[in-house]
Design goal:
mainly alpha, 5 helices, 0% strand, elongated
Length: 125
């Protein structure tokens, strides 16, 4: 249910999940869940988070520890064509997953993303 409203390409994330299956021999997350959608909805309704960047940051931090280093390293090497700092690599993957969650929430009508060229760019209602 990714729409591309936040992320132009999920190629790095695809490479990560593929690496998990190949390197780890298992599916590995994180994958946005219904609990994450409920948390997102509460954060927005209560106005605990009022802009898109903070929402991405919140969920990125939540997902970061669940990103498997070996698979992340393999995905980033494949995507960037060279070794990338593992901390940066893991944070980019976590950010992609957080953005995916937000795009899903937008598609389901939980939130409404505003377009970048309009007032309140990179925010939501």
């Amino acid at each position: 249910m990714a729409s591309g409203k936040i992320v132009n390409s999920y190629e790095l994330l695809y490479k990560y999940y593929n690496a998990c299956r190949e390197v780890e021999s298992t599916e590995c997350g994180p994958i946005p869940s219904s609990e994450d959608l409920k948390e997102l909805e509460l954060l927005v309704k209560r106005r605990e988070i009022t802009n898109l960047a903070a929402l991405i940051d919140h969920f990125s931090k939540k997902y970061l520890d669940k990103i498997r280093e070996t698979s992340a390293k393999a995905a980033c090497r494949s995507f960037f064509g060279r070794d990338i700092d593992i901390t940066y690599c893991r944070s980019k993957i976590a950010e992609l997953i957080a953005s995916w969650l937000i795009e899903v929430a937008d598609n389901l009508g939980i939130i409404s993303l505003k377009y970048a060229w309009r007032e309140g760019a990179r925010s939501f209602e």
